[in-house]
Amino acid sequence: MKKFLFIISKSASGVSVQEALDQIMSAAAFDQAVSLLFIDDGVFQIKKNQRPDELGLKATTAIFEALDVYDVNAFYVETESLEQSGLTVQDLCLPVKLLARNQIAGFIKQHECILPG
User: CATH code at 20?
Assistant: First the structure.
């Protein structure tokens, strides 16, 4: 089993979100250990109470919440990104673990496959 890390650094933008979620679910379906790290504007992808339909986009929070079915439940958020976005852990739709910016490099090194999300 390989340890996959998907780094999600951009806010939701149409097809790219669905493609990333497809990759995440594919890795998990083949019994790989999958973790997600939300940094920069990526934290907005898991913000509660989004209304992407008003912008003509698909809601993705329900898909992120359903990742538990694939045994994907290791969600991490960079503390500084969360603070810069004006969000708190309570504003997110997933139970996340916080990592300080100076912990990110060491965290990434713990994974064998690092992919953009």
Answer: 3.40.1260.10
| pLDDT of residue 58 exceeding 90 | no
Per DSSP, the three-state class of 103 is helix
Distance between CA atoms of residues 79 and 82, nearest Å? 5
| Cβ count near 78 (within 10 Å) | 23
Report the pLDDT value the prediction gives residue 101, as an integer from 0 to 100. Answer: 97
Q: Give the tokens for residue 47.
A: 């913000």
DSSP letter for each residue of 43-78: GGGGBTT--GGGGT----HHHHHHGGGGT--EEEEE
pTM, to two decimals = 0.90
CA atoms within 13 A on the CB side of 21: 20
User: Domain total for the chain?
Assistant: 1
- Amino acid identity of 26? S
Q: By three-state DSSP, how is residue 114 classified? A: strand
Question: For tokens 């209304």, what's the residue?
Answer: 51
3-state secondary structure of 26: helix
- Domain of residue 15 covers 3-116
